[in-house]
Structure formats: C-alpha cells, structure tokens
C-alpha cells in the first residue's frame, strides 16, 4: 500500500466539484455555440428551448422573467450571475473551491483560474451576438482546456488527483446523456424532407457539442444513421466524452483508490459503476431506439446520480441521504436538474439541493482524512 499524506474529506469533495463546475462551463459554451450555428429557420425558439431543457432550467428561466428567444437564453447563461447554472456562477463556484484547495494546487493552476474568472466577469451584452459570440464561446472553451492542461501537467498524482478526475468524468457522462436525450427527442415529430434536413443539421450539432464531429467522421460510414451517432456517444471506447469511456475511467480511478490507498469505502461506488457498465453494453443500440431512447437515458442518468451519491456518502461531508431505489422511482423523475454540491448553510445553491445533490461552492464540513 502506498503511504502518502492523508487527504481531507473536504479537499476530496472540493476537487471533485471544482472539476465538475469547470466541465459545465465548457459544455455550456459548446452548446451555445452550436445552437447559434445550427438553429433551423422557423425553429429558432425550439432550438434555444432545447438548451434550457438540457439543464432542466425551465422553472428557473421563467421565474426570472425571461422569454424563450436567443437573446434571453444567452443572457441567462452568459451574464446572469443570479442563475446558478450560468457560466459566471459555475466559474465562481469553481474558484471558491479552488481557494480552499490552494495548498494542494500548483501556482500555475491557481493563476490560470483567477485569470479565467476575471475574463468571465467582464463579459458584456455586446459579446452575445454574431462573430463576437463565437469568439466568446471559443475563449470559454480555451479557458477550461487551459485549466485541464495545466492540471494534467502540474497536479500531484495522489488521492486528490483521482477525485478531480472522477468528478470530471462523471460530469462529462451526465452532460452527454442530457444533450443526447433532448436533441434526439427534438428530431422525432417531423416527417419527409423536413425530417431529413433536421437530422443532418441536428446530428452535426450534437456531435460538435460533444466535441466528437471529426472523430465520428473518421470512423463512421459516409451515410450515417441515428444509430451510428447514438452508439458513438454512448459506447465508443475512444471518444473522450462517450459515456462508456467516462464510466470506465471512473471505475478505474475508484479501483486505484481502493487498491493503492486502501480506501475500501469505494466498494459500493465500484459496484454501481459495474452495474451501469452492464446497462450501457447489454442491448443493441437498435433495440434501445426501438423501445425508447428517452426512457433508457433516464435510467442511465439515475444510475449516474447513484454513482455520484455512492462516492459522496463514502468520502464527502454531509452528503444527502440515499436516493429512492431505481425500481421505486418513476421514470419521469430521472429528468431532474443536474447534480449540485451540498452547500454549507451559508452558501448559495448552484442548481438543486435534492438527492441528486450539488456541493457548496466551498466544500467545508468534516475534515477527517479519507483513510
């Protein structure tokens, strides 16, 4: 067994959620950019509504007095600091976590996240239109990718690194399932030529939002089908944002924590990950599409929440109680808001305080070592 300095529970939680918040910033930037680029004439409002639905923000969006049009949705996600799912709010939460993790982070990591935070704080209304929006989305993606690269090159490979990576992989898998669910459902009602045009446009948008367009084109047939895209996003063994690859990496990191560091409390999470892997690979994609992709993705999302919950209960502070068993939960309940960090009493919530759970901007809470 490897003997390293013990990692505090609050630091493991902070690293886990810092990674998730930053992934959300990049994912939002990708979704906004492709929605702007690929909105179909006559279906503009529907395209922007899809972005709200991916983040389960319908109630929050309406409560803040917005209407479903491009300008309001862009303001909601790029300027509205009162919206806990916005780019500024997610980056603020990431930076707050980073502040508590300063002793574990390299100077380069800390400097970059502060520079990035300062950039986001200066986003203006003029940045939300035309070419300026494209430049902004690229800058947001570049900022997160710079953080990822600096972290890869400078973060010490101890227990903390594993929790950071686990958070990143779970968030990627969750975002891929949400985006695929909403975009696929949007294609269903149309027929004939409208359906063909919508498919070509929307599948390109889905692949670009998942940063997989060029990789998919390298290995797909010239005339690809919905089945090909769904398989690529759910099961491709090499695509960085495929659900299967993210799950395998999460499972491997949990196994390393158990094997190298003796963290036997990872057992439950590993069992959940193994079960979810079986769900992902058991049936042909054609069968899943025939019987209902939406219902299938609901089940996958529930199990991703269960996986995060198993990790939280094992290693983090004051994690919400165990969610209802899968068999007891209505299928519709799986479309809940993205998980959020269980906040300390003085913290504002980012997305929800349900059993899906979102952490506080600052992890706080119990301070005992994990082992």
Indicate the topology.
Layout: H1 9-38, H2 44-54, H3 58-63, H4 70-78, H5 87-100, H6 107-121, H7 130-154, H8 159-187, H9 192-209, H10 213-219, H11 226-235, H12 243-261, H13 267-281, H14 285-291, H15 293-315
Helix pairs in contact: 1-5, 1-7, 1-8, 1-9, 2-8, 5-6, 6-7, 8-9, 8-12, 8-15, 12-13, 13-15
Please give a structural write-up.
This protein has 371 residues and is mainly α. The protein has one domain. It has helices at residues 9-38, 44-54, 58-63, 70-78, 87-100, 107-121, 130-154, 159-187, 192-209, 213-219, 226-235, 243-261, 267-281, 285-291, 293-315. The longest helix is centred in the first third of the chain and has 30 residues, at 9-38. The termini are close together.
How would you briefly describe this protein structure?
The protein is mainly alpha-helical. The chain has one domain. The protein has helices spanning 9-38, 44-54, 58-63, 70-78, 87-100, 107-121, 130-154, 159-187, 192-209, 213-219, 226-235, 243-261, 267-281, 285-291, 293-315.
